[in-house]
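Hey, resending since the last one bounced:
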Amino acid sequence: MSVKALAKGLPISPRKVSVVAALVRGRSVEDALVILEHTPRSSAQAVIKVISSAKANADRNHNLKPESLQISEISVTPGPRLKRFRAGSKGRAFPYQLKTSHLKVIVDGETRIVKKPVKVAKKEAK
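The structure tokens again:
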């Protein structure tokens, strides 16, 4: 069963996030978190949060084993751009854009077997 987590509107350029996402594509969740902890890029923290969220979703909502999770898909798409102007000399204005990105992580894993408690029928007194 696949479980997903999304982060929309990250204030980091999609080009910068996709470099970090390529490091962990196709790996297990535990390996990916260790790799990202030692990656010296600011976008690594955003990717850690989304992978951790997907791991928590799989564990709590879909009853999957956290140690068996694999990253089946991680994709980065461009988000909305914020258009701004920087002041220049002699009253001029120089336009620039603040780029944002959307990050989607899908993980797959094995289902955990949960034993349901057995209900004991009460004997009625006669």
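The helical segments are 14-24, 29-37, 43-60.

Sorry for the duplicate.
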